[in-house]
Specification:
92 residues; mainly alpha; UDP-galactose 4-epimerase, domain 1; 5 helices; globular
Amino acid sequence: YELSGDYAWDFNELAAAASEIIGRPVVYEPVDGPTLIERMTAAGAERPGAEFAAALDANIAAGLLSEVTGELSALIGRPTTPLKEGLKAALG
């Protein structure tokens, strides 16, 4: 299976949704891989985890994780949770 949500959102949509929920501006600012690794390790992340996050971000930016298959909805028997609803649960 290639599990995905029912909609492939991007980082700008994530930032806009977070802004709406928390009531203040959230802006997505892309960071290159080496800078992300440097910032994450400076904040205490282990280097392998930071490298994984940087690779994941690069794949997202390249559109490699944007396929919407509908398989997750079929498996769970309902639509997946929309971005804003999931963020409200996490941030609200």
